[in-house]
């Protein structure tokens, strides 16, 4: 009953606050989305707390929940308390007032998701398994996981709505191009995040599917191309503005996507890498770099966006063809990617932020404020760096809990068949060993080598032709988590 009372109280508070949220509309000028008043400190605190909670605490809590960390529940409780406080601060502010907008409406849905998530989490924490609880527990476990993994996506959407509502953007004739920029920009960032996940922790899943990464990339590209082909132009009406360019880009996407799907398998049905998705990204960047604009700053931002996207496609081609040489990973277990492999995902992050920051209203605002495109591009790249860092931190937390052995100093000793003597004389983060420490390492290696040679001489006698290193090599291959599982599945 306590849980039901808590849920009822939270729902009542949400409904009451939604009524309060409708106040203040009379101060908004006719035909405008926001008043001309500045944003007050209360609303700034609301935005900072909400961004911290839904942008950092809840994604971190999601990862801790996946790895079943004891810090999952305390962190989620702290995040929920901050979110509830920030929610009411958003309805208690003075200063700038807002008309009816999607951010205010979507906030109620987001908080309702949070309430359901908290209630289910508290129910599961009671560990009730007798009677009907045993039959419905599995359903609530799945629902709790789905809501938790969907929360970052919904939170991202709400934060975008918040930025749009705060400035009164995407109104009237600007709505169409505004949606295109934010949807496509978010898609590029999501693609970069997926590439990062597959690069760092997703190789075993990819091998289990029996498909190459380009199969899934090409499938999404083909589907997205079909949507763009029939939605970028109002059929039956005149071709205006950039309708033709957007439609032809959609045609290229689904044509290339179908080719990429076909080329993602060998004759024997085994998965095969290909360059088609990278070429599509490169062509899209080329088209966007020459996109005609009305303002000079908008032209420059779109050009840099196009060049960044072209660089993402070009570096992806280099990665597949020359770094990986059509393989899935550089190391045996996929836990030690080449440093060059981080470049294509990051460039997709940067491309997404550049495109989301290039709407007509944003460009007009920058033009009126006298801000140069160089300063703006550096700010957007800085945001891309921060997001890339945060995603890598989350994946690191997941990896060290999912595969504890991979975090040990000797974890990558079998990942590479060759060793670099310069790297052998350094510690983590590039700190060099002293001459005496290096000599100790070399002496130890010489001692081990001498022992192996003596063992080999003892074993190499008539009646025993088995080489001592033979079974050791097989044992090492079995100990590699991905290779061993792949061999057993084959």
TrEMBL record:
Keyword terms of this UniProt record: Membrane, Signal, Transmembrane, Transmembrane helix
A Pfam family it matches: DUF2427
Stretches assigned to the Protein YTP1-like C-terminal domain: 155-398
Start and end residues of each DUF2427 domain: 29-127
Domain of life assignment: Eukaryota
Region (Disordered): 448-490
Membrane-spanning intervals of the chain: 45-66, 73-90, 102-124, 136-159, 179-202, 275-292, 304-324, 340-358, 378-400
Signal peptide: 1-21
Claim: Signal is one of the keywords in the record: yes
ATP-binding keyword on record: no
Listed PANTHER family: INTEGRAL MEMBRANE PROTEIN (AFU_ORTHOLOGUE AFUA_6G12730)-RELATED, PROTEIN YTP1
The name this protein goes by in its record: Integral membrane protein (Ytp1), putative
Native organism: Neosartorya fischeri (strain ATCC 1020 / DSM 3700 / CBS 544.65 / FGSC A1164 / JCM 1740 / NRRL 181 / WB 181)
